[in-house]
Design goal:
By secondary structure, this protein is of the alpha/beta class. It has nine helices and 18 strands. The strands form three sheets. Strands 17-16-15-14-8-13-12-9-18 form a nine-stranded mixed β-sheet. Strands 1, 2, 3, 4, 5, 6 and 7 form a seven-stranded mixed β-sheet that branches. The protein has a two-stranded antiparallel ribbon with strand order 10-11. A hairpin with a 2-residue loop joins strand 14 and strand 15. The longest helix has 20 residues. It is globular and about 70 Å long.
């Protein structure tokens, strides 16, 4: 078996998502399994080069995982001809400039979302990368969750008939930071630092809806800052300038309607932190991170509204659990594998920077819809 090394500049891996999901559970997990089997007598060996602004944090991270290469000089790393791929998991305001520099250096680009602070810049990045002839991809991890993969299996099998509607609930209570430490960094609640749940979550909802049910053709959104005062990582109070909840209605190509609530100020009374209910003419499903339950029309009960009579059975018990029927690996790792195969074998990969720009577009239009109090059309983007 021949080993083929791909060197990856990983920027932003001292942050929670970059460290846990991308470095540890994706790249290092690939190394622990002996590399990625390319199926042609070759094994791809990912070699991370850690990049960031804080030297002590980078050094400590490298030592913890037995890595030797790290740098606070992004331009020097990009100038290294042995580096093949640039990956970005920085805070949003820093991302577009770094991607632009990586494209100029001729590196393949893989990045978290949102890809830029506004649609014009996101489209510019996509066009620059395509014009440069490099390969580029955007993390769209929720498509690889076991629950949504089961949902996709149902769609492909024609289970739903005509899809009528999608209802999504996402969120949990993020503590304010005064009497219990917050679970999310404080910049998430400052608009001037790129925070806000619309910018964070609408790009996810765009690709989930687009890939599973059809392109989003219009958006109507309402946003709120339900908790206006929070405390940062140093215990200092600050005023939240970004929304912590968003309520969106999305019309889809083909006529289905999606309604998705996103909130960091909701206490969870559901089975998983995110759930999507899909209702169709032939059946319905409720999919979460891992599970998926269905109710076919042939097994649908016939309830009658009567508030004077107590319910005699659990509605949840009337649904059937969908079996795994497969081994589901970490979703971030699964997408990394596809992107790396795209880079070295030129296998198809369509979650590119243009797909990332669609997410930025939906977030931008969602915020505008909320500000103007009206429904907005979502124009189709082309490269």
């Amino acid at each position: 078996m021949t080993r083929r090394t791909v060197r990856i500049a990983m920027n932003g891996v001292t942050g929670r998502m970059g460290h846990r999901q991308h470095l540890v559970r994706s790249i290092l997990a690939l190394r622990e399994q002996g590399g990625l089997d390319l199926g042609n007598g070759e094994t791809l060996w990912p070699e991370p080069v850690l990049v960031g602004r804080r030297e002590p944090a980078l050094r400590a991270l490298a030592e913890r995982h037995g890595l030797t290469e790290w740098s606070t000089d992004l331009d020097a790393v990009l100038a290294d001809g042995t580096v093949d791929v640039y990956f970005d998991a920085q805070v949003t305001p820093a991302r577009a400039d770094a991607i632009r520099r990586a494209v100029a250096a001729g590196k393949h680009v893989y990045t978290e979302k949102p890809t830029a602070g506004d649609l014009a810049e996101a489209l510019d990045l996509a066009r620059l990368a395509t014009g440069k002839g490099i390969k580029h991809g955007v993390v769209q991890d929720k498509l690889f969750l076991p629950g949504l993969r089961k949902l996709k299996r149902l769609i492909d099998g024609g289970f739903f008939g005509e899809v009528l509607s999608v209802r999504g609930e996402f969120g949990y209570w993020v503590f304010e930071g005064d009497w219990q430490e917050a679970q999310r960094p404080s910049w998430n609640y400052r608009a001037e630092d790129g925070g806000g749940i619309v910018v964070d979550m609408f790009p996810h909802w765009e690709y989930v809806l687009h890939e599973l049910f059809g392109r989003v053709t219009s958006v109507s959104a309402h946003v709120a800052t339900h908790v206006p005062r929070r405390w940062d990582e140093h215990g200092k109070p600050y005023e939240a300038t970004a929304e912590d909840a968003a309520y969106g209605v999305f019309e889809l190509e083909g006529g289905a309607v999606a309604q998705i609530n996103s909130s960091w100020t909701v206490r969870v009374h559901r089975d998983e932190l995110v759930e999507f209910q899909v209702d169709g003419t032939h059946g319905s499903a409720v999919a979460g991170l891992r599970g998926c339950r269905v109710q076919h029309r042939s097994a649908t009960p016939k309830p009658v509204w009567n508030p004077d009579v107590p319910a005699t059975e659990s509605f949840r018990d009337q649904w059937q659990e969908i079996p795994d029927n497969a081994d589901f690996d970490n979703g971030f790792k699964a997408q990394w594998e596809l992107f790396l195969r795209h880079v070295v074998l030129d296998e198809p990969y369509h979650w590119d920077l243009l797909a990332g720009a669609r997410g930025v577009q939906l977030a931008e239009l969602g915020l505008r819809s909320a500000a103007e109090g009206r429904r907005l059309e979502v124009p189709e983007l082309t490269g």
